[in-house]
Specification:
two-stranded antiparallel sheet, 2 domains, alpha+beta, 13% strand, five-stranded mixed beta sheet, 362 residues
């Protein structure tokens, strides 16, 4: 038996320390949205349950005051039954917690922000040598809202995060007056923007979220597969970059490479002809990923007309080659100029500008 309350408290401390150090890396709008969702988690509220603004405002003020106190604090080790574990040793911690139906996640996100959470286990399976978990209800987490994580030989897909994303998009679709990509994605799962909000609607959102959470696993498998091919140089490149658009762009190149990989999400979607998942892939294709992989935009429009999966497969291969070429250029330049990170960042900015100009002209 483990003292769950004590374990949650230790993990929550580390979440708060991480947030205290890194809250400034979010935009004001992004921070407020994350705080509202964190409030939901800590108060056991589902995405569709109404928030009381006064309560949320009071909680945010209290959280900001806590961050001021913790901004110089250290992360703590995790004490379980008198055994001490480093906070990032999720493998050994889970050896203890899994027997109680709990799953611990720990790693680093954007800008090297420490990420922690603990959740119930929905499912476990072994895929291509990786221990793959789908995490259910999250009891504790930090501000980070990644839908999936890869850490060593473990992949965790987070149902709560997937459901939050899907519900927010469902609400967005219902506010629109014309059909859009969202209408297509939800329509393939049997939901429309005219749908009234009923218990059945919530149940359908849960089913969609679970289905999409399982697709995120294949993004992480692609990450692992392509990461092994790129080697340590890629990790060194990422870790050397300052908190900037250059870092986000390099991560985006790897994201497209992972999705279009033979082991990646798009390949799995195509093989299983999951048109709803293809719709959501295009809904969430944005930012740098969209200008790196613009071919998917036109391919998806064609697919909506004729449901020809060969078009998507051809586009996947094209996207993979482009992302691989881009990653190769970045690595080659970094290897030649790694003693001058400012020069590396300027090179990356040129790559960004070139892609943005090409995207704007098409």
């Amino acid at each position: 038996m483990v003292n769950v309350k004590k374990i949650f408290s230790q993990i929550k401390h580390n979440c708060n320390v991480s947030d205290a150090r890194f809250w400034g890396t979010y935009s004001l709008c992004g921070l407020l949205l994350r705080l509202r969702e964190l409030y939901r988690i800590e108060n056991g509220l589902l995405p569709w349950e109404k928030l009381q603004n006064e309560d949320v405002g009071r909680w945010i003020n209290e959280r900001e005051e806590l961050w001021r106190k913790l901004q110089d604090s250290a992360l703590v080790d995790i004490n379980i039954n008198s055994d001490i574990f480093n906070a990032f040793d999720e493998r050994e911690i889970n050896k203890v917690l899994n027997a109680s139906g709990l799953l611990y996640g720990a790693g680093y996100g954007l800008h090297r922000k420490p990420v922690f959470f603990i959740a119930e286990i929905i499912s476990y399976e072994k895929i291509d040598g990786y221990n793959v978990y789908v995490a259910g209800k999250e009891f504790v987490r930090d501000l980070s809202d990644y839908p999936a994580m890869l850490q060593n030989e473990v992949i965790i897909s987070r149902f709560d995060m997937a459901r939050l994303l899907i519900w927010n998009k469902f609400e967005e679709m219902r506010c629109r007056n014309i059909p859009c990509k969202l209408s297509y994605a939800f329509g393939e799962y049997g939901l429309s923007r005219e749908q009234s909000i009923t218990k059945e609607t919530y149940e359908n959102i849960n089913k969609i979220a679970l289905s999409e959470a399982k697709e995120y696993v294949y993004h992480e498998l692609g990450e692992a597969f392509e990461g092994a091919k790129l080697g340590e140089g890629w990790k060194q490149l990422l870790s050397s970059l300052p908190h900037s658009s250059a870092e986000i762009f390099v991560r985006s190149v790897k994201d497209v490479l992972s999705d279009t990989s033979e082991k990646g999400m798009l390949r799995h979607i195509i093989e299983n002809e999951k048109s709803g998942s293809l719709g959501f892939y295009n809904v969430f294709l944005s930012g740098f990923r969209k200008i790196i992989f613009p071919e998917m935009v036109e391919a998806f429009e064609n697919f909506r007309e004729n449901k020809n999966w060969d078009i998507i497969e051809k586009t996947r291969k094209m996207g993979y080659k482009k992302a691989l070429d881009s990653a190769g250029r970045l690595l080659e330049f970094y290897n030649e100029h790694n003693s001058d990170i400012d020069t590396v960042c300027k090179f990356i900015e040129k790559e960004i500008n070139l892609l943005q100009n090409n995207f704007a002209s098409n």
